[in-house]
Specification:
The complex is a heterodimer of chains A (258) and B (276). By secondary structure, chain A is mainly alpha-helical. Chain A has nine helices and no strands. Chain A has one domain. The longest helix of chain A is centred in the middle third of the chain and has 39 residues. The termini of chain A are far apart. Chain B is of the alpha/beta class. Chain B folds into two domains: 195 residues, P-loop containing nucleotide triphosphate hydrolases (Rossmann fold), CATH 3.40.50; 74 residues, no CATH class. Chain B is globular and about 55 Å long. Chain B starts with a strand and ends with a helix. Classes of the chains: A mainly alpha (258), B alpha/beta (276). Chains A and B meet through helix 5 of A and helix 2 and helix 3 of B.
Chain lengths: 258, 276
Amino acid sequence: MSIVEMIERLGALVIDDVAQLGAFVLFLVGAAFYVFVPPFKPRLWIRQIRIIGADSLFLIILIGGFTGMVLGLQGYNTLRRFGSDGALGTVVALVLVRELGPVLAALMIAARAGSAMAAELGSMQSTEQIDALTVMAINPVQYLVSPRMLAGVISFPLLTSVFDVVGIFGGYMVGVGLMGAPSGAYFNGIAANMDGHDIMTGIYKALVFGVVVTWVCCYKGYHAERMATGVSRATTEAVVLSSALILAFDYFLTSILL
Amino acid sequence: MSQTEINHGDGNAQNIRNPASAGNAIEVRDLRRRFGRQQVLDGVTLDFPAGQITTIVGPSGSGKTVLLKHINLLLRPDSGTIVIDSVEVTKLGATGLDAVREKFGMLFQAGALFDSMSIFDNVAFPLVEKTRLTRAEIAEHVHETLNAVGLQGMEAKFPSEMSGGMQKRAALARALVRRPKILMLDEPTTGLDPSRTGAIHELIRRTQENFHLTAVMVSHDVPAVFQVSDRVAFLHNGRTHLNGTVAQVMAADDDVFKRFLAGKASGEENETALAG
Protein backbone atom coordinates (compact mmCIF):
# COMPACT_ATOMS: atom_id res chain seq x y z
CA MET A 1 0.00 0.00 0.00
CA SER A 2 1.43 3.40 -0.95
CA ILE A 3 1.64 6.31 1.46
CA VAL A 4 -1.12 8.11 -0.45
CA GLU A 5 -3.40 5.10 -0.06
CA MET A 6 -2.58 4.91 3.66
CA ILE A 7 -3.43 8.56 4.11
CA GLU A 8 -6.62 8.05 2.10
CA ARG A 9 -7.67 5.16 4.34
CA LEU A 10 -6.83 7.05 7.51
CA GLY A 11 -8.77 10.03 6.29
CA ALA A 12 -11.75 7.88 5.39
CA LEU A 13 -11.65 6.29 8.85
CA VAL A 14 -11.58 9.63 10.61
CA ILE A 15 -14.39 11.00 8.46
CA ASP A 16 -16.45 7.89 9.12
CA ASP A 17 -15.89 8.09 12.88
CA VAL A 18 -16.78 11.77 13.01
CA ALA A 19 -19.89 11.12 10.93
CA GLN A 20 -20.91 8.32 13.30
CA LEU A 21 -20.35 10.54 16.32
CA GLY A 22 -22.49 13.21 14.71
CA ALA A 23 -25.24 10.70 13.97
CA PHE A 24 -25.03 9.50 17.59
CA VAL A 25 -25.56 13.00 18.95
CA LEU A 26 -28.29 13.84 16.42
CA PHE A 27 -30.10 10.66 17.47
CA LEU A 28 -30.25 11.96 21.05
CA VAL A 29 -31.40 15.39 19.93
CA GLY A 30 -34.11 13.89 17.73
CA ALA A 31 -35.39 11.51 20.39
CA ALA A 32 -35.47 14.24 23.04
CA PHE A 33 -37.20 16.64 20.63
CA TYR A 34 -39.96 14.19 19.77
CA VAL A 35 -40.84 13.70 23.45
CA PHE A 36 -42.40 17.17 23.25
CA VAL A 37 -43.97 16.87 19.78
CA PRO A 38 -47.47 15.46 19.21
CA PRO A 39 -48.97 12.97 18.76
CA PHE A 40 -48.46 12.00 22.38
CA LYS A 41 -48.88 8.32 23.22
CA PRO A 42 -49.21 7.92 27.01
CA ARG A 43 -49.82 4.18 26.63
CA LEU A 44 -46.35 3.82 25.11
CA TRP A 45 -44.77 5.79 27.96
CA ILE A 46 -46.60 3.68 30.55
CA ARG A 47 -45.54 0.46 28.83
CA GLN A 48 -41.90 1.50 28.85
CA ILE A 49 -42.04 2.71 32.46
CA ARG A 50 -43.37 -0.71 33.37
CA ILE A 51 -40.63 -2.51 31.42
CA ILE A 52 -37.72 -0.30 32.50
CA GLY A 53 -38.97 0.66 35.94
CA ALA A 54 -41.42 -1.74 37.51
CA ASP A 55 -39.86 -4.87 36.05
CA SER A 56 -36.43 -3.84 37.39
CA LEU A 57 -37.71 -3.31 40.95
CA PHE A 58 -36.93 -6.74 42.31
CA LEU A 59 -33.38 -6.63 40.95
CA ILE A 60 -32.84 -3.14 42.40
CA ILE A 61 -34.12 -4.23 45.82
CA LEU A 62 -31.88 -7.29 45.75
CA ILE A 63 -28.72 -5.46 44.69
CA GLY A 64 -29.50 -2.47 46.91
CA GLY A 65 -29.97 -4.72 49.90
CA PHE A 66 -26.71 -6.57 49.43
CA THR A 67 -24.82 -3.38 48.67
CA GLY A 68 -26.05 -1.83 51.91
CA MET A 69 -25.20 -4.97 53.82
CA VAL A 70 -21.64 -4.99 52.51
CA LEU A 71 -21.29 -1.30 53.28
CA GLY A 72 -22.54 -1.97 56.79
CA LEU A 73 -20.00 -4.74 57.27
CA GLN A 74 -17.01 -2.98 55.76
CA GLY A 75 -18.01 0.37 57.21
CA TYR A 76 -18.29 -0.96 60.74
CA ASN A 77 -14.95 -2.79 60.60
CA THR A 78 -13.17 0.29 59.29
CA LEU A 79 -14.82 2.87 61.55
CA ARG A 80 -14.34 0.76 64.68
CA ARG A 81 -10.54 1.08 64.27
CA PHE A 82 -10.92 4.81 64.79
CA GLY A 83 -13.62 4.53 67.44
CA SER A 84 -16.12 6.08 65.07
CA ASP A 85 -18.62 3.26 64.65
CA GLY A 86 -21.36 5.72 65.60
CA ALA A 87 -20.88 7.35 62.21
CA LEU A 88 -21.82 4.15 60.40
CA GLY A 89 -25.26 5.37 59.39
CA THR A 90 -23.84 8.60 58.01
CA VAL A 91 -21.19 6.83 55.99
CA VAL A 92 -23.52 4.20 54.57
CA ALA A 93 -26.17 6.74 53.65
CA LEU A 94 -23.83 9.29 52.10
CA VAL A 95 -21.95 6.70 50.06
CA LEU A 96 -25.19 5.18 48.81
CA VAL A 97 -27.09 8.38 48.12
CA ARG A 98 -24.26 10.32 46.50
CA GLU A 99 -22.45 7.58 44.67
CA LEU A 100 -23.20 3.88 44.83
CA GLY A 101 -26.94 4.19 44.57
CA PRO A 102 -27.14 6.02 41.25
CA VAL A 103 -24.13 4.24 39.72
CA LEU A 104 -24.97 0.66 40.68
CA ALA A 105 -28.66 1.11 39.96
CA ALA A 106 -27.83 2.49 36.51
CA LEU A 107 -25.41 -0.35 35.79
CA MET A 108 -27.99 -2.96 36.78
CA ILE A 109 -30.75 -1.33 34.71
CA ALA A 110 -28.37 -1.00 31.75
CA ALA A 111 -27.56 -4.70 31.96
CA ARG A 112 -31.21 -5.72 32.27
CA ALA A 113 -33.45 -3.23 30.53
CA GLY A 114 -30.82 -1.60 28.34
CA SER A 115 -29.75 -4.86 26.77
CA ALA A 116 -33.41 -5.77 26.18
CA MET A 117 -33.98 -2.40 24.51
CA ALA A 118 -31.01 -2.87 22.19
CA ALA A 119 -32.04 -6.43 21.37
CA GLU A 120 -35.66 -5.51 20.67
CA LEU A 121 -34.82 -2.58 18.41
CA GLY A 122 -32.04 -4.54 16.73
CA SER A 123 -34.43 -7.37 16.01
CA MET A 124 -36.98 -4.91 14.64
CA GLN A 125 -34.30 -3.38 12.42
CA SER A 126 -33.14 -6.71 11.04
CA THR A 127 -36.70 -7.84 10.25
CA GLU A 128 -37.63 -4.50 8.55
CA GLN A 129 -40.21 -3.63 11.20
CA ILE A 130 -38.65 -0.17 11.55
CA ASP A 131 -38.84 0.31 7.78
CA ALA A 132 -42.49 -0.79 8.00
CA LEU A 133 -43.18 2.02 10.47
CA THR A 134 -41.49 4.53 8.14
CA VAL A 135 -43.51 3.39 5.13
CA MET A 136 -46.69 3.71 7.24
CA ALA A 137 -45.73 7.40 7.76
CA ILE A 138 -45.00 6.78 11.45
CA ASN A 139 -41.78 8.34 12.73
CA PRO A 140 -39.90 5.35 14.19
CA VAL A 141 -37.75 7.50 16.48
CA GLN A 142 -40.82 9.18 17.93
CA TYR A 143 -42.68 5.89 18.25
CA LEU A 144 -39.89 3.64 19.53
CA VAL A 145 -37.13 5.73 21.06
CA SER A 146 -38.73 8.80 22.65
CA PRO A 147 -41.02 6.76 24.95
CA ARG A 148 -38.02 4.76 26.14
CA MET A 149 -36.02 7.87 26.82
CA LEU A 150 -38.85 9.47 28.76
CA ALA A 151 -39.36 6.25 30.70
CA GLY A 152 -35.66 6.21 31.54
CA VAL A 153 -35.74 9.76 32.86
CA ILE A 154 -38.73 8.87 35.05
CA SER A 155 -37.62 5.41 36.17
CA PHE A 156 -33.95 5.87 36.94
CA PRO A 157 -34.35 8.39 39.80
CA LEU A 158 -37.22 6.39 41.29
CA LEU A 159 -35.29 3.14 41.18
CA THR A 160 -32.20 4.85 42.56
CA SER A 161 -34.24 6.11 45.50
CA VAL A 162 -35.51 2.59 46.17
CA PHE A 163 -31.92 1.33 45.95
CA ASP A 164 -30.78 3.93 48.48
CA VAL A 165 -33.56 3.23 50.98
CA VAL A 166 -33.13 -0.53 50.79
CA GLY A 167 -29.37 -0.15 51.02
CA ILE A 168 -29.62 2.03 54.14
CA PHE A 169 -31.80 -0.57 55.81
CA GLY A 170 -29.42 -3.30 54.63
CA GLY A 171 -26.56 -1.43 56.28
CA TYR A 172 -28.63 -1.11 59.48
CA MET A 173 -29.41 -4.84 59.51
CA VAL A 174 -25.75 -5.81 59.31
CA GLY A 175 -24.04 -2.88 61.01
CA VAL A 176 -26.41 -2.56 63.93
CA GLY A 177 -28.20 -5.86 64.04
CA LEU A 178 -25.22 -8.10 63.40
CA MET A 179 -22.11 -6.13 64.25
CA GLY A 180 -23.45 -4.16 67.19
CA ALA A 181 -23.06 -0.57 66.06
CA PRO A 182 -25.12 1.89 68.13
CA SER A 183 -28.72 1.73 66.99
CA GLY A 184 -29.85 5.28 67.73
CA ALA A 185 -26.73 6.83 66.23
CA TYR A 186 -27.33 5.11 62.90
CA PHE A 187 -30.43 7.03 61.83
CA ASN A 188 -29.70 10.13 63.93
CA GLY A 189 -26.38 10.44 62.13
CA ILE A 190 -28.13 10.28 58.76
CA ALA A 191 -30.61 13.01 59.76
CA ALA A 192 -27.88 15.23 61.10
CA ASN A 193 -25.34 14.89 58.33
CA MET A 194 -27.33 14.47 55.15
CA ASP A 195 -28.94 17.43 53.46
CA GLY A 196 -30.95 18.15 50.34
CA HIS A 197 -27.82 18.72 48.28
CA ASP A 198 -26.65 15.17 48.93
CA ILE A 199 -30.00 13.75 47.87
CA MET A 200 -30.24 15.95 44.77
CA THR A 201 -26.71 14.95 43.74
CA GLY A 202 -27.88 11.39 43.50
CA ILE A 203 -31.07 12.37 41.69
CA TYR A 204 -29.22 14.49 39.12
CA LYS A 205 -26.85 11.61 38.45
CA ALA A 206 -29.76 9.20 38.05
CA LEU A 207 -31.45 11.55 35.59
CA VAL A 208 -28.31 11.81 33.48
CA PHE A 209 -27.73 8.06 33.62
CA GLY A 210 -31.34 7.50 32.54
CA VAL A 211 -30.74 9.56 29.41
CA VAL A 212 -27.35 7.99 28.70
CA VAL A 213 -28.49 4.37 29.01
CA THR A 214 -31.62 4.76 26.91
CA TRP A 215 -29.78 6.86 24.34
CA VAL A 216 -26.90 4.41 23.89
CA CYS A 217 -28.99 1.24 23.97
CA CYS A 218 -31.64 2.59 21.61
CA TYR A 219 -29.00 3.91 19.21
CA LYS A 220 -27.13 0.63 19.08
CA GLY A 221 -30.30 -1.39 18.55
CA TYR A 222 -31.74 1.02 16.00
CA HIS A 223 -28.55 0.88 13.95
CA ALA A 224 -27.87 -2.84 14.31
CA GLU A 225 -26.51 -4.49 11.19
CA ARG A 226 -28.98 -6.67 9.31
CA MET A 227 -27.09 -9.90 9.71
CA ALA A 228 -26.97 -12.88 12.03
CA THR A 229 -24.47 -11.32 14.45
CA GLY A 230 -25.88 -7.82 14.15
CA VAL A 231 -28.28 -7.97 17.06
CA SER A 232 -25.89 -9.70 19.44
CA ARG A 233 -23.12 -7.25 18.59
CA ALA A 234 -25.47 -4.30 19.09
CA THR A 235 -26.60 -5.63 22.47
CA THR A 236 -23.07 -6.23 23.71
CA GLU A 237 -21.84 -2.84 22.54
CA ALA A 238 -24.88 -1.15 24.10
CA VAL A 239 -24.22 -2.55 27.56
CA VAL A 240 -20.45 -2.01 27.42
CA LEU A 241 -20.72 1.56 26.14
CA SER A 242 -23.53 2.43 28.58
CA SER A 243 -21.49 1.12 31.49
CA ALA A 244 -18.40 3.03 30.45
CA LEU A 245 -20.35 6.25 29.95
CA ILE A 246 -22.10 5.84 33.32
CA LEU A 247 -18.72 5.77 35.04
CA ALA A 248 -17.32 8.59 32.92
CA PHE A 249 -20.33 10.83 33.49
CA ASP A 250 -20.24 9.92 37.19
CA TYR A 251 -16.77 11.38 37.48
CA PHE A 252 -17.69 14.60 35.66
CA LEU A 253 -20.92 15.04 37.57
CA THR A 254 -19.22 14.39 40.89
CA SER A 255 -16.55 16.97 40.11
CA ILE A 256 -19.27 19.51 39.34
CA LEU A 257 -21.66 18.70 42.15
CA LEU A 258 -19.23 18.24 45.05
CA MET B 1 -51.69 -2.07 -29.51
CA SER B 2 -49.01 -0.79 -27.15
CA GLN B 3 -45.35 -1.21 -27.90
CA THR B 4 -42.21 -1.63 -25.95
CA GLU B 5 -38.64 -0.66 -26.63
CA ILE B 6 -35.67 -2.84 -26.03
CA ASN B 7 -32.38 -1.54 -24.70
CA HIS B 8 -29.41 -3.56 -25.81
CA GLY B 9 -27.15 -2.26 -23.08
CA ASP B 10 -26.28 1.20 -24.35
CA GLY B 11 -28.88 3.21 -22.50
CA ASN B 12 -32.28 3.03 -20.94
CA ALA B 13 -35.37 1.60 -22.52
CA GLN B 14 -37.92 4.31 -23.20
CA ASN B 15 -41.31 3.72 -21.69
CA ILE B 16 -44.17 3.80 -24.12
CA ARG B 17 -47.50 4.61 -22.53
CA ASN B 18 -50.03 1.90 -22.87
CA PRO B 19 -53.04 3.57 -24.48
CA ALA B 20 -55.25 1.27 -22.44
CA SER B 21 -53.98 2.60 -19.09
CA ALA B 22 -55.26 5.67 -17.28
CA GLY B 23 -51.85 7.32 -16.96
CA ASN B 24 -48.88 6.65 -14.72
CA ALA B 25 -49.12 6.30 -10.97
CA ILE B 26 -45.34 6.44 -10.67
CA GLU B 27 -42.71 7.83 -13.01
CA VAL B 28 -39.00 7.25 -12.44
CA ARG B 29 -36.56 9.28 -14.50
CA ASP B 30 -32.80 8.74 -14.74
CA LEU B 31 -32.48 7.50 -11.16
CA ARG B 32 -28.92 7.07 -9.90
CA ARG B 33 -27.66 5.77 -6.58
CA ARG B 34 -24.22 4.76 -5.41
CA PHE B 35 -23.27 2.82 -2.28
CA GLY B 36 -19.59 3.35 -1.61
CA ARG B 37 -17.88 2.57 -4.88
CA GLN B 38 -20.75 0.55 -6.31
CA GLN B 39 -23.15 2.27 -8.71
CA VAL B 40 -26.28 0.26 -7.95
CA LEU B 41 -28.75 2.33 -9.95
CA ASP B 42 -27.22 3.78 -13.06
CA GLY B 43 -29.93 5.89 -14.63
CA VAL B 44 -33.15 3.91 -14.27
CA THR B 45 -36.14 5.25 -16.18
CA LEU B 46 -39.49 3.53 -15.74
CA ASP B 47 -43.21 4.18 -15.73
CA PHE B 48 -45.70 2.34 -13.54
CA PRO B 49 -49.16 2.66 -15.11
CA ALA B 50 -52.06 3.21 -12.74
CA GLY B 51 -54.28 0.24 -12.06
CA GLN B 52 -51.77 -2.34 -13.27
CA ILE B 53 -49.33 -4.79 -11.73
CA THR B 54 -45.77 -4.04 -12.81
CA THR B 55 -43.17 -6.58 -11.80
CA ILE B 56 -39.50 -5.70 -11.60
CA VAL B 57 -37.22 -8.65 -12.34
CA GLY B 58 -33.52 -9.06 -12.86
CA PRO B 59 -30.48 -10.95 -11.64
CA SER B 60 -29.23 -10.55 -8.08
CA GLY B 61 -27.46 -7.23 -7.69
CA SER B 62 -29.31 -5.56 -10.53
CA GLY B 63 -30.84 -3.00 -8.15
CA LYS B 64 -34.44 -4.24 -7.90
CA THR B 65 -34.89 -3.86 -4.16
CA VAL B 66 -32.89 -0.63 -4.09
CA LEU B 67 -35.22 0.74 -6.78
CA LEU B 68 -38.25 -0.32 -4.73
CA LYS B 69 -36.79 1.38 -1.65
CA HIS B 70 -36.48 4.59 -3.62
CA ILE B 71 -40.07 4.35 -4.80
CA ASN B 72 -41.33 3.74 -1.26
CA LEU B 73 -39.18 6.63 -0.07
CA LEU B 74 -36.92 4.68 2.26
CA LEU B 75 -33.90 5.85 0.25
CA ARG B 76 -33.11 9.09 -1.55
CA PRO B 77 -31.35 9.01 -4.94
CA ASP B 78 -28.09 10.72 -5.77
CA SER B 79 -29.81 12.15 -8.85
CA GLY B 80 -32.94 11.68 -10.89
CA THR B 81 -36.60 12.20 -10.17
CA ILE B 82 -39.53 10.16 -8.93
CA VAL B 83 -43.08 11.40 -9.52
CA ILE B 84 -45.77 9.66 -7.48
CA ASP B 85 -49.38 10.58 -8.18
CA SER B 86 -48.20 13.80 -9.87
CA VAL B 87 -45.95 14.81 -6.95
CA GLU B 88 -42.18 14.99 -7.42
CA VAL B 89 -40.91 13.40 -4.23
CA THR B 90 -37.13 13.42 -4.29
CA LYS B 91 -36.79 16.88 -2.74
CA LEU B 92 -39.63 16.64 -0.24
CA GLY B 93 -39.05 17.11 3.49
CA ALA B 94 -40.27 14.75 6.19
CA THR B 95 -43.81 16.12 6.28
CA GLY B 96 -44.16 15.99 2.51
CA LEU B 97 -42.82 12.44 2.39
CA ASP B 98 -45.28 11.31 5.03
CA ALA B 99 -48.15 12.78 3.03
CA VAL B 100 -47.06 10.74 0.00
CA ARG B 101 -46.56 7.60 2.13
CA GLU B 102 -50.24 7.79 3.14
CA LYS B 103 -50.97 6.49 -0.37
CA PHE B 104 -48.80 3.41 0.03
CA GLY B 105 -49.21 -0.08 1.32
CA MET B 106 -46.07 -2.19 1.50
CA LEU B 107 -45.56 -5.93 1.81
CA PHE B 108 -42.00 -6.56 2.96
CA GLN B 109 -40.06 -9.65 2.02
CA ALA B 110 -40.35 -11.31 5.44
CA GLY B 111 -43.65 -9.64 6.27
CA ALA B 112 -42.22 -7.28 8.92
CA LEU B 113 -45.13 -8.04 11.24
CA PHE B 114 -44.70 -6.70 14.78
CA ASP B 115 -43.79 -9.75 16.87
CA SER B 116 -45.30 -8.54 20.12
CA MET B 117 -48.74 -7.87 18.60
CA SER B 118 -51.49 -10.23 17.58
CA ILE B 119 -52.57 -10.41 13.95
CA PHE B 120 -55.58 -8.23 14.79
CA ASP B 121 -53.36 -5.58 16.36
CA ASN B 122 -50.88 -5.78 13.50
CA VAL B 123 -53.55 -5.22 10.87
CA ALA B 124 -55.30 -2.57 12.98
CA PHE B 125 -52.05 -0.73 13.64
CA PRO B 126 -52.16 1.73 10.69
CA LEU B 127 -55.79 2.56 11.52
CA VAL B 128 -55.07 3.05 15.23
CA GLU B 129 -52.04 5.24 14.62
CA LYS B 130 -53.15 7.25 11.61
CA THR B 131 -56.94 7.56 11.76
CA ARG B 132 -59.62 8.70 14.19
CA LEU B 133 -61.84 5.67 13.66
CA THR B 134 -63.62 4.20 16.64
CA ARG B 135 -62.65 0.78 17.96
CA ALA B 136 -65.77 -0.73 16.43
CA GLU B 137 -65.00 0.79 13.04
CA ILE B 138 -61.40 -0.40 13.23
CA ALA B 139 -62.54 -3.90 14.13
CA GLU B 140 -64.92 -3.92 11.15
CA HIS B 141 -62.14 -2.83 8.76
CA VAL B 142 -59.74 -5.41 10.16
CA HIS B 143 -62.20 -8.29 9.91
CA GLU B 144 -63.14 -7.29 6.38
CA THR B 145 -59.51 -7.11 5.29
CA LEU B 146 -58.55 -10.38 6.94
CA ASN B 147 -61.49 -12.03 5.18
CA ALA B 148 -60.24 -10.64 1.87
CA VAL B 149 -56.88 -12.38 2.33
CA GLY B 150 -58.35 -15.60 3.67
CA LEU B 151 -57.34 -15.19 7.31
CA GLN B 152 -60.75 -14.98 8.96
CA GLY B 153 -60.62 -16.37 12.48
CA MET B 154 -56.87 -15.75 12.87
CA GLU B 155 -57.16 -12.43 14.67
CA ALA B 156 -55.93 -13.68 18.04
CA LYS B 157 -52.87 -15.49 16.72
CA PHE B 158 -49.36 -14.05 16.94
CA PRO B 159 -46.97 -14.06 13.97
CA SER B 160 -44.77 -16.73 15.54
CA GLU B 161 -47.77 -19.06 15.64
CA MET B 162 -48.39 -18.85 11.91
CA SER B 163 -46.81 -20.39 8.83
CA GLY B 164 -44.79 -18.30 6.38
CA GLY B 165 -47.66 -18.14 3.93
CA MET B 166 -50.10 -17.01 6.61
CA GLN B 167 -47.67 -14.36 7.79
CA LYS B 168 -47.44 -13.04 4.22
CA ARG B 169 -51.24 -12.88 4.05
CA ALA B 170 -51.38 -11.04 7.37
CA ALA B 171 -48.71 -8.61 6.21
CA LEU B 172 -50.67 -8.09 2.98
CA ALA B 173 -53.79 -7.39 5.04
CA ARG B 174 -51.88 -4.77 7.03
CA ALA B 175 -50.70 -3.19 3.78
CA LEU B 176 -54.27 -3.07 2.45
CA VAL B 177 -56.26 -2.06 5.53
CA ARG B 178 -56.11 1.66 4.74
CA ARG B 179 -57.09 1.00 1.13
CA PRO B 180 -53.92 2.46 -0.41
CA LYS B 181 -53.69 3.62 -4.00
CA ILE B 182 -50.31 1.99 -4.52
CA LEU B 183 -49.29 -1.43 -3.23
CA MET B 184 -45.63 -2.37 -3.18
CA LEU B 185 -44.48 -5.95 -2.74
CA ASP B 186 -40.90 -6.98 -2.10
CA GLU B 187 -40.43 -10.59 -3.16
CA PRO B 188 -43.78 -11.74 -1.76
CA THR B 189 -43.22 -15.42 -2.45
CA THR B 190 -39.65 -15.84 -1.22
CA GLY B 191 -39.36 -18.81 1.09
CA LEU B 192 -42.71 -20.31 0.14
CA ASP B 193 -43.27 -23.68 -1.48
CA PRO B 194 -44.76 -23.82 -5.03
CA SER B 195 -48.35 -24.37 -3.91
CA ARG B 196 -48.27 -21.41 -1.52
CA THR B 197 -46.47 -19.35 -4.16
CA GLY B 198 -49.36 -19.89 -6.53
CA ALA B 199 -51.86 -19.02 -3.83
CA ILE B 200 -50.05 -15.77 -2.98
CA HIS B 201 -49.83 -14.80 -6.65
CA GLU B 202 -53.52 -15.45 -7.06
CA LEU B 203 -54.25 -13.44 -3.92
CA ILE B 204 -52.19 -10.51 -5.23
CA ARG B 205 -54.05 -10.52 -8.54
CA ARG B 206 -57.46 -10.81 -6.86
CA THR B 207 -56.57 -8.07 -4.38
CA GLN B 208 -55.34 -5.74 -7.10
CA GLU B 209 -58.58 -6.21 -9.02
CA ASN B 210 -60.88 -5.92 -6.01
CA PHE B 211 -59.18 -2.87 -4.52
CA HIS B 212 -58.33 -1.23 -7.89
CA LEU B 213 -54.67 -0.81 -6.96
CA THR B 214 -51.51 0.06 -8.73
CA ALA B 215 -49.03 -2.64 -7.74
CA VAL B 216 -45.24 -2.59 -7.94
CA MET B 217 -43.71 -5.96 -7.29
CA VAL B 218 -40.10 -7.13 -7.08
CA SER B 219 -39.78 -10.83 -7.68
CA HIS B 220 -37.26 -13.57 -8.27
CA ASP B 221 -40.07 -15.99 -9.08
CA VAL B 222 -39.59 -15.99 -12.82
CA PRO B 223 -41.49 -16.97 -14.97
CA ALA B 224 -44.34 -17.84 -12.54
CA VAL B 225 -44.82 -14.19 -11.56
CA PHE B 226 -45.54 -13.22 -15.17
CA GLN B 227 -48.92 -14.95 -14.86
CA VAL B 228 -50.12 -12.27 -12.45
CA SER B 229 -48.29 -9.31 -13.98
CA ASP B 230 -49.56 -6.79 -16.49
CA ARG B 231 -46.14 -5.32 -17.21
CA VAL B 232 -42.56 -6.40 -16.64
CA ALA B 233 -39.43 -4.31 -16.17
CA PHE B 234 -36.16 -6.19 -16.51
CA LEU B 235 -33.26 -4.50 -14.74
CA HIS B 236 -29.70 -5.29 -15.71
CA ASN B 237 -26.57 -3.62 -14.34
CA GLY B 238 -28.61 -0.93 -12.63
CA ARG B 239 -30.53 0.09 -15.75
CA THR B 240 -33.86 -0.73 -17.37
CA HIS B 241 -32.99 -3.27 -20.01
CA LEU B 242 -36.50 -4.27 -21.07
CA ASN B 243 -39.88 -2.80 -20.26
CA GLY B 244 -43.34 -3.58 -21.59
CA THR B 245 -46.29 -5.91 -21.27
CA VAL B 246 -45.58 -9.52 -20.34
CA ALA B 247 -46.27 -10.72 -23.86
CA GLN B 248 -44.02 -8.10 -25.41
CA VAL B 249 -41.14 -8.76 -23.03
CA MET B 250 -41.41 -12.53 -23.40
CA ALA B 251 -41.41 -12.15 -27.18
CA ALA B 252 -38.43 -9.79 -27.21
CA ASP B 253 -35.40 -11.05 -29.07
CA ASP B 254 -32.91 -10.19 -26.37
CA ASP B 255 -30.03 -12.47 -25.41
CA VAL B 256 -29.51 -11.00 -21.94
CA PHE B 257 -33.12 -11.55 -20.98
CA LYS B 258 -33.18 -15.02 -22.49
CA ARG B 259 -30.07 -15.99 -20.55
CA PHE B 260 -31.65 -14.59 -17.39
CA LEU B 261 -34.75 -16.67 -17.98
CA ALA B 262 -32.65 -19.72 -18.65
CA GLY B 263 -30.74 -19.08 -15.42
CA LYS B 264 -27.35 -18.55 -17.04
CA ALA B 265 -25.07 -15.63 -16.26
CA SER B 266 -23.57 -13.70 -19.14
CA GLY B 267 -19.89 -12.97 -19.29
CA GLU B 268 -20.67 -9.36 -18.32
CA GLU B 269 -22.69 -10.56 -15.36
CA ASN B 270 -19.90 -12.89 -14.23
CA GLU B 271 -17.40 -10.03 -14.37
CA THR B 272 -19.79 -7.86 -12.40
CA ALA B 273 -20.28 -10.57 -9.81
CA LEU B 274 -16.55 -11.17 -9.43
CA ALA B 275 -15.83 -7.45 -9.21
CA GLY B 276 -18.42 -7.22 -6.42
